Amino acid sequence: MDLIVAYQNELLALVAILVVIFIYLIIKRKTTSSSTQKRTEEIVTVETTKPVVEEVVAQQEEEVEAHEKAVETEDTSATLLDGKEEGDFGVVEEKDAEKVQVKQKVIKKREVPPHAKITKDDFKEFSGQRILLAEDNIINQKVILGLLAESGIDVVVANDGVEALEILEKDDNFILILMDAHMPRMDGFEATRKIRKNPALNHIVVVALSGDTAADDIRKMTEAGMSEHLEKPLKMDALYDVIYAYTPDENASSSLNYTELDIEEGMEISGNDTAFYHEILNEFINSYNNAHEVIESLIKQNNTENADRLLLDIIGVSANIGAQKLTATAREFKTSLNSDDNEKSRLLFKFKEDFENLVKEIKSYLLTNN
Question: pTM for the complete prediction?
Answer without folding.
Answer: 0.45
